[in-house]
Design brief:
about 240 residues, alpha/beta, TIM Barrel, two-stranded parallel ribbon, 6-stranded parallel beta sheet
């Protein structure tokens, strides 16, 4: 099993989350906007640089803008300004991008490519691989206690049912959401498939899920997975770069 995690929005609680990943020897990628127009805090530059020493940091636009709602000029500005300001803070190129809210279309995708990103992550779930499009990297499941009804809706929404059903089935048989997450991981522990967990540290804080996250990460670490960041996943799974 290849295990990776990614975390959106750059909230200061990312520092606590990163420490937990470090403790269990697990990798992660953090997508950070420079500010958040929704009013949530974003970690300061010093914290970003400290996080960058241990994990991958990707861009999440300038101020967490939903790109499909913008004009072409506004979209380009959000993508480029977010990338360049983050690179100025970190002192190196940033190759990864995440679409805020998972919202994008063909024009947004083209803008991300033109901004010289290497890949972009979406939110399509129940995948057990890294996908076939490096500008729409899918996920396996969000670390959040969604109801079964929500999981069903998400499964129906994104199609590719035969490919996504094995992961969905593992989650659906769990007695509760945390046992479902463990079922999902354990079912793939002896395979070469990808488990990609994503989420928001501010949601974990708001819903008091830290003990559940610690339990889950401990469970995963005891399975001894291959663990890597999103920018390293290409060396384990081939991505196509169809533009």
């Amino acid at each position: 099993m290849i295990f990776t995690t990614s975390w959106d929005d750059g909230h200061p609680c990312d520092e606590r989350l990163a420490a937990m990943l470090d403790h269990y020897g697990l990798a992660g990628t953090f997508y950070i906007p420079i500010k958040n127009q929704e009013g949530r805090q974003v970690m300061d530059a010093l914290a970003m640089r400290e996080l960058d020493r241990r994990f991958e940091i990707g861009s999440h636009t300038l101020d967490h803008a939903y790109l499909t709602k913008l004009t072409a000029e506004q979209c380009d500005f959000q993508i480029l300004a977010g990338k360049h300001q983050l690179e100025d803070i970190l002192g190196h190129n940033v190759g990864g991008f995440c679409y805020p809210g998972g919202k994008f279309n063909a024009d947004v995708r083209e803008s991300v490519i033109n901004a010289q990103f290497v890949y972009a992550r979406g939110i399509s779930n129940f995948w057990l691989n890294s996908g076939i499009d490096s500008f729409n990297i899918p996920t396996t499941i969000q670390f959040y206690p969604h109801s079964r009804q929500v999981l069903w809706r998400n499964f129906i929404k994104h199609g590719h049912y035969s490919e996504r059903f094995p992961a969905f089935k593992s989650v659906a048989v769990g007695m509760n959401w945390l046992s479902a997450m463990k079922n999902l991981v354990e079912a793939q522990s002896e395979t070469e498939r990808v488990i990609h967990i994503w989420g928001h540290s501010w949601e974990i804080e708001d819903n008091n899920l830290w003990s559940q996250l610690d339990d889950f990460l401990n469970f995963v670490s005891e399975l001894n997975p291959v663990t890597c960041r999103l920018d390293e996943l290409r060396s384990h799974n081939k991505w196509s770069n169809e533009k």
